[in-house]
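Lab notebook page, bench 4
Experiment: in silico fold of construct C2
Operator: M.H.
Input chain length: 144 residues
Purpose: comparison with the prior construct
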Amino acid sequence: MNNYQNILLAVDFSGFVHSVAYKAKSLATQFNAQLHIIHVLDNIPMPDTPYGTVIPLNKNSSYDLLEAEKEKLIQISNELNIAPERCWMIWGEPQQEITQLAVKEGIDLIVVGSHGRHGLAVLMGSTAKGVLYHAKCDILAVHL
């Protein structure tokens, strides 16, 4: 196992987000690494917003669904003591946005949740599988 310096936690706000988050926090503590967090918006409509758009967390909008997602990300990042400059909410396709941010920020480990109840076959088409095959760094898929 490498001595990780930058760990990216990818969250989707499922019921298991805290299990994955605390695994990432534990690894960041163990390796004295910087913990980063990303939430990719792919589940709410974003009119006139191209994929890859970073959503500012410090500016309010009149879009209630967006504000609810921002509040969830801010709450988790506060619980994990992640600095605002290492928190991202991006509108787009999760595997693409996660892997692109990992390259841009020099991430050496991505932590994602996996619903792989029956091995890798269940991951077909999932975000975890997409990140696994496209990332240029190590991936930890936390079994949920």
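Observations: Helices lie at 17-31, 64-79, 94-104, 127-134. Residues 6-143 form a domain with the Rossmann fold fold (CATH 3.40.50.620).
Next step: discuss at group meeting.
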